[in-house]
Every structure is written in C-alpha cells, then in structure tokens.
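From the pipeline queue, job 12 of 40. The input is one protein chain; the requested action is below.

Action: predict structure.
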Amino acid sequence: MVTLYNRIMRNQEEPSRVMTPKDLKYKNAYIRKDEFASDPADTFHIFDITGYSNWLDQLDLYANITKPSGKRESYTLDYIGNYEVGEKKREYDGDIKDLHLRNYKQFILYNIQDVVLLSHIENKLKHIDLLYNISMLTNTRISKALRKTVSIRNFGEESYFESGKVMGNNHSELYPDAGKIPGALTVFTLRGHSKLYELLEPPYLGQSAAKPKFIVSIYK
C-alpha cells in the first residue's frame, strides 16, 4: 500500500483522486509510514483513505499474526510465497524499471503472478478473515484490531456493559491526589427510562490479570 501511494506521488498525481471513490464529495488519502519499528511484526502504518474499503498491508498483517511462531528469515513476497505455498515470483530479464518498455507481455505476466501469489497465500492462511473476526468480536476498528491492548480493552468494555458495568477512563494518574475515583454512568434507554451502570474502578486496568481471561474468551 505504501508502495502504491509513493508511486502515485512520484507520477505527480493526487492520491485522493486515484484511491477514493468518485461519488464521494470529500476525499482524503493520507498514509503515514511507521519509521520507528524495525520488525515488520511491530509495524503499524496509518492509512487514512476516504472510501468504502479498509486498506491493509498484507506484509505487516502476515508478520504480526505469525510472530508467535517465530520470525521469518525474510518477508519478501518471493520468500513467503515459497515458504507458505511453494510458489515464487515470476522471473524476468534485465531491470524491472524498463521491463514494460522492453517486454510488455513479460511485465504483465510478472504482475499477474504477484497478485495470484498473494491470493494463494491468503486462501491458505485466511489472515484477512481472522482480522475481520477479531475486529467484529472485540468491537475494534480494523486498523486497531491487532493492537492487543486496544482490542482486549474493547472486548472487556463490551462484556462489562452487557452486565450493567462500565469501564471508566478516569485513571488515577490524571488526578494524583485523588486516588481511585468512584462514580457511575446514567444513560436513557429507548423507552425513556434512565439506567444506572456501575462504574468499575481499578484494579480492572491490571492488564496482566485481564489478558488471559479475555484471550480464552476470544479463541473459544
């Protein structure tokens, strides 16, 4: 995705004109590349693109999901394709930069093989399906679904809310002299009756205690 965005910019085109639907009045296409993470498994690029689709970087998605099974020797499409499905990128003669001028057919077949290879990897691993399911289950945006702390907290908030409790965000560090801040949340139901939700106080924020319970629930 970052490569596509940069190629559009190099061709002096406006990314929002190319990457957003024509029927939308307000268009935005902005990508901020994560320059700090050295490991692809920890990389989180920001894609802010107006449209009806969620944009994903399959390299980062693959690296993040497969991280528990060990870091791969390489994350190039050629290596991962051979590692996962026994297929590699198509070879070509000379430099890719002018291949479309020297041998257009070879250039087209090279790009088709890239797309087919990505499709075969996804059909085997179902990583996009997994990401979608995590997003729906934890009530987390696609762009944040693989951030464990965010998705686990959202999952906890949803579960607590169903039992009449609300996870507050009034962390005591914001009020160092106040300690734990008790309280409650009152909302109006569709029938016009108010409902009182108990506001949970720390130590529910203790992630070390919460994570195992939530993870078991997610993967049951």
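Job complete. The chain has a mean pLDDT of 78.
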